Structures are given as C-alpha cells and as structure tokens.
Amino acid sequence: MLNIRPATPADVPVILRFIRELAAYEREPDSAVATEADLLRDGFGPTPRFWSLIAELDGVPAGFALCFNTYSTWEGHHGIFLEDLYVPPELRGRGVGKALLVRIAQIAVEQGCGRVNWHVLDWNAPSIAVYERLGARFLSEWRIMRLSGDALTALATNVSLKG
Fold it and tell me: Structural domain boundaries of the chain?
C-alpha cells in the first residue's frame, strides 16, 4: 500500500539519504553537502524554510519530495517550488513519483497557489516524459541563473569582479 505523508524530524536521516542518492543520479555526488543538522534547522526549526513529503510503500520509505513557497508578482499569488523529487531506481514505475506530485498539486490547490514549478535536467528524458504526461509544460524559453560561492560573496560586499 502506498502512503504519502508529511515528513517529521525523525525522517531527516532518510531524507538526507535520498538527497545524496539523487545527487549521485544527477551526476553531482560531491555537491550534496547538506547535513542532518541543516535539514532539522531549516525544515523543522522555529522558522521552516521548506516542507517535505515522504512516500511509503508497505510502510517502507519509497521516495520524497522537498518543497518551499514562492510568490508570483504577476499572478499575485504564492506558489510552490519543488526542489527535489526522488524515488529509488528499484521502486520507479510503481506510481510513487506520481503520487508525490498528486499530493503536491492537492496542497497547491488547497492553499490557493497559482502554480507549482520545478527544474529537470535536460538529459532526464524519462522524467520529462512523465511530467509532460501529467500536464506540465517545459519552459524552454526561460534560463536558470545562479549566483553562488565567490561571486555571491563579491556581489554582497559590492566587490567588482573581472569580466
């Protein structure tokens, strides 16, 4: 039996394991540096920065989704950003990922959200196909921008960068 439920602090070790497995799948295993303490602080502390769902198949963790709220100035409504969705390879094709997406959509509708957004790697054709079958649109005209590391620090301190 498949069950989708909100994550609790006791789920942090499995969430972190899933995050690391996802990073390996996405060919960036060394980039997942979050710790259990980070997840506890930011997901379950006094000012939660994210919320998470756990999928269980016959009582065993079978996947997770990690989300946070966004805001659309154009729509004048908040939305949900799906940061991570992961189902271990041996459990894919059993409806776990779809069930997580269904629950996120339900939460979005319940909360009056205007949309749910997420990123998908351009080489991840199986996931893209699933998302499109569920009605998601691929926004190929938009590019993701990221400011991090030294560039973030330099801008924050108003230090000029070469280039």
Answer: 2-156
| 113-129 as b/e: b if 16+ CB within 10 A | beebebeeeeeeeeeee
Spatial neighbors of 21 by CB under 8 A, at least 6 apart, are 86, 88
Residue 48: pLDDT over 70: yes
pLDDT of residue 161: 60
Q: Model-level pTM greater than 0.85? A: yes
Average pLDDT of span 35-61: 97
Count other Cβ atoms within 10 Å, centred on residue 101.
21
CB 96 within 8 A of CB 61: no
The class level of CATH for 2-156 reads alpha beta
* Active site members: 131
